[in-house]
Design goal:
Helix 16 packs antiparallel against helix 17. The protein is α+β, with helices and mostly antiparallel strands and 373 residues long. Strands 1-2-4-3 form a 4-stranded mixed sheet.
């Protein structure tokens, strides 16, 4: 994996001597890694750069033509999908603002803006956080959208122009009720600024509001933490968080770095995220070469090795897990018990969240039944 990690750093714009990497690379294995981790577009950008910067090395270890054509087609499809999702994100944001609802687009197309090529990130659905009461959001959604058959605690699932959309009552949840309550208070305190941070999408696709880097460094860590226990996280989510941590916005405030870092670390501990943050820093360092001076907290090697193993085994949102009885590929009932079995492996690392996960999931199941339309 060492060569693949070095190649990934190169794709993200880091200065890496690629002579030895190109010579030793198994291109088929790299493609399989990129496909499993939803990184095909990002890695294809790196291959195009290699053609310009290391042409002789590529001649000595060429990529199979059929593989290259398949990869190019995937990258073009990712680009087209990004353009479509950008249009939907802008349309959704404009519609909500026109109807008097303050909101911001979470993750997704906002994260893509931080990439060297914003069209290379694998797009997903459009998540929008609406700063309004649950009742008002529900009333609005029932008038404006075709809704799914159920409702979830933190969002409503729908679609716009063929793109899946999630209308969020709040950005994210935690399994432990104590930390969940603290997190919601933190979200409410910081909501106003996130709905005011307007950015332009590429190629005049429109404008959207996106969270600030200072907000994302906590929120997206929480999102990673939640999905780690739910189904798993992949390298795409890790790369997203890498760009949050190294963003120019955080560098601008580096004159007050010690004060900012001290405040951030207190928040991480207050929200129950400290141990997981250390694990993520380890992965960012080992895989993407994040320097220690840019870390939001010290690395946690023990938990970091566990996290990295889960990422490499499970892939994007755990879709490729082979252990834990292939739990993400099972039916609802079997998946429920396999999830509990999986999360019991994490009790000694994250006891508060791991022990709370089956309790929260069971409660949420019956809550959804009760609150169906």
């Amino acid at each position: 994996m060492k060569l693949i990690f070095e190649f990934l750093r190169y794709c993200l714009g880091n200065k890496v001597d690629m002579s030895g990497v190109v010579a030793g690379m198994n291109w088929q294995r790299l493609y399989e890694f990129a496909s499993k981790q939803a990184m095909l577009g990002v890695c294809f950008d790196g291959i195009e750069r290699l053609g310009k910067e290391y042409p002789e090395e590529l001649k000595r270890n060429p990529i199979d033509r059929n593989l290259l054509m398949t990869w190019m087609g995937a990258a073009q499809q990712i680009r087209r999908q990004n353009m479509k999702v950008n249009g939907v994100a802008s349309k959704l944001y404009s519609m909500l603002r026109k109807d008097g609802l303050r909101c911001c687009i979470l993750k997704g197309q906002g994260n893509a803006l931080m990439y060297p090529n914003p069209y290379s990130r694998n797009p997903g659905d459009v998540d929008v956080w609406i700063d309004a009461s649950r009742e008002r959001i529900m009333e609005y959604a029932q008038k404006k959208f075709e809704l799914e058959d159920d409702i979830r605690l933190q969002h409503i699932e729908t679609s716009l122009d063929g793109v899946p959309v999630e209308l969020h009552f709040f950005p994210c949840s935690m399994n432990n009720l104590f930390y969940h309550a603290r997190l919601q208070k933190w979200f409410k305190r910081n909501a106003d600024l996130q709905c005011s941070n307007v950015v332009s999408l590429p190629d005049d696709a429109g404008e959207i509001a996106v969270p600030t880097a200072a907000f994302n460094v906590v929120y997206q860590l929480t999102h990673l933490y939640h999905h780690f226990f739910d189904e798993g996280i992949g390298m795409r989510q890790i790369v997203d968080y890498y760009f949050v941590v190294i963003s120019d916005e955080l560098l601008v405030i580096s004159d007050e770095l010690l004060v900012i870092r001290d405040t951030l670390q207190r928040e991480l501990k207050h929200l129950g995220l400290w141990k997981f943050a250390g694990a993520v820093m380890y992965v960012l360092h080992e895989v993407l070469g994040l320097s220690e001076e840019k870390m939001i907290c010290p690395m946690d090697e023990k938990r970091g090795k566990l996290l990295l193993a889960e990422i490499l085994n499970g892939g994007n949102f755990g879709k490729h897990f082979t252990k834990y009885g292939h739990f993400t590929q099972q039916g609802m009932a079997k998946k429920y018990f396999l999830k509990i079995w999986r999360n019991m492996h994490f009790v000694r690392y994250y006891p508060a969240e791991a022990l709370s996960e089956p309790v929260f999931r069971t409660w949420h199941f019956f809550w959804r039944i009760k609150n169906k339309k």
